[in-house]
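Why show two proteins at once? Because comparison is the fastest way to build intuition. When a single record is shown, students tend to memorize it. When two are placed side by side, the eye starts asking what differs. So, the first record is below.
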Amino acid sequence: MIEVKIFLDEEDTYEHSKLYEYIMRYLMHNKIRGASVFQAFAGFGHKHHLHHQKGIGTTDENPLMIMFIDDNEKIKNVLPHIKELIKEGIIIKENVELA
């Protein structure tokens, strides 16, 4: 099995919708085995600008991680399109063993 982690900002968009929502719908449409979105408390990228929660109800582009898993063939089918979508984020792909 292959696990993919995508790091992006909550406010990233694609075709007038949140990028993470678009990616989740894309993964569901392509029948990926499972996916989750995780929100971070803080993070920074190559520009070294710290993004973090500023208080109750306010945010500064919170970092998100989308994690999904499936067999190698299905990952190879969906990953090229996802790579086109991610402009400033990071994509990590690794082999995993399910327990």
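Second record. Ask yourself what differs from the first in the token line.
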Amino acid sequence: MLLKLTILPGDGIGPEVTDEAVRVLESVTDIFGHQLEVARKPVGGAALAASNDPLPDDTLLCCLASQAVLLGAVGGPAFDHVPAAKRPEAGLLRLRRELGVFANLRPAVCFPALVDASPLRAEIVHRTDIVIVRELLGGIYFGQPRSTEGPAGYRVAIDTMRYAEDEIERIARVAFELARRRRRKVTSVDKANVLDSSRLWREVVNRVAGSYPDVKLSHTYVDSAAMALVARPAEFDVMLTENMFGDILSDQAGGVVGSLGMLASASIGGKVGLYEPVHGSAPDIAGRGIANPLGGILSIALLLRHSFRLEAEARSIESAVNAVLNEGCRTADLARYGQPTLTTSEMGKKVSQAVKQHAPAVA
């Protein structure tokens, strides 16, 4: 199979993390006999610096012409002075909208070898395996009107939380379909005791649940969900959330399982899938070789699974990551005090080698 990808290295640690993800992908395609065609394009702050546009037309057209997109990260304090419409994050939001990726899947898995990396007690975090299904193209990040008006000292800022029934229904169906392939439990997160949009959310989710009698549905308020996520994370299976709630809870889930650097994501449902680690650009550690590339590498597994339906190839990466962690390999964010650490590239090489060792048996 020909795998035609666009790579968007982005800002901060994005380039070094995507380099290692591509390294692992090259190992997989070599072992399983696929062809890989990769185009690298600028996005975010890197694109802004080069062309005064966080999402240049050439980058967008290349993404739309590919079969999948891998993104590193965008943004950083250096761009805080830039007008909102030109900020790196604006380019990312536009990219999501142009690709039509309305469903963001964010797995949070506690690998057995990383139980001691979690700030929670081992018996609490053990066996945590959650997928947060986040609606990605609606809610307060896209709702209108939005504005900041008035003279200095008296300004008023407005953001609008907006959801239509069809937007809620389509993301709910993604969650229920996913739950059918897992442990058949969906927890829908809202704030229905306060927000009209959440009351509509809950009503529509209940209606969709009628088509999935084999899946158990429960509802929880977002503040209660945040507490439960640290008190009993292993009880969750699929968490269904609107855009902002999912953004917040998935970062919290990263802390629960040991590091935000472990979290991958898949944005699907549109023309072309967009895959990216959940961590940000982390400019404070960029170029130091200490970033954890495993979130980016695990994003490649999601890319193979969802954009190409290559399950054996995806599992070979996940097995390789598990194997190197079991060997005691750690980047700085995962290491206990005094434990040896690997650089970003060393960890990428370890996973690439492990893929070569384990993949033939999987294939």
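One difference worth noting in the second protein: The domain at 119-256 is CATH 3.40.718.10 (Isopropylmalate Dehydrogenase).
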